[in-house]
Amino acid sequence: MKFGTTATVTLTRDAVGDITLHVLDEGPGIPEASLQEVLQPFYRLEDSRNRDTGGTGLGLAIAAQLVSQMDGALRLANRPQGGLDASVRLGRGGIVS
């Protein structure tokens, strides 16, 4: 949400009980070549240094690590109309009732 103005959040559960959370923003997205790199600690896009957003490059890395510890997956994808789709998928094993 640092780079987008608004976001839509959806939560779905499939037939086997896996849960997927999508955060869809309307920001500039992330260059395709950097979609995996931004999940690494301290990685920052060059353009982000010119913004007033600050940050250390840890947010997505921490999120990815936490989701991984819950046997889930964090995925980033650019939306065709612009913006980013950040999704977290948790299987039944990673969900606490």
Order of helices and strands: EEHEE
Main sheet summary: 4 strands, antiparallel
Give the class-level CATH name: Alpha Beta
Number of domains: 1
Helix content: 10-25%
**What would you call the structural class?**
mainly beta
Q: If you consult CATH, what is the topology?
A: Heat Shock Protein 90
- The overall average pLDDT, rounded, is 86
Going across the biggest sheet, name each strand in turn. 1-2-4-3
CATH evolutionary superfamily: Histidine kinase-like ATPase, C-terminal domain
**Gyration radius, to the nearest Å?**
14 Å
Task: Give the termini distance in whole angstroms.
Answer: 28 Å
Architecture per CATH nomenclature, i.e. the level-2 architecture: 2-Layer Sandwich
Q: Which ranges are low-confidence, i.e. pLDDT below 50, for 5 or more consecutive residues?
A: none
Account of the protein in words:
By secondary structure, the chain is mainly beta. The chain has one domain (7-94): 2-Layer Sandwich (Heat Shock Protein 90), CATH 3.30.565. Strand 1 (7-13) and strand 2 form a beta hairpin. It has one helix at residues 59-69; strands at residues 7-13, 19-25, 72-78, 84-90. The protein has a 4-stranded antiparallel sheet with strand order 1-2-4-3, covered by helices on one side. It is a multi-pass membrane protein.
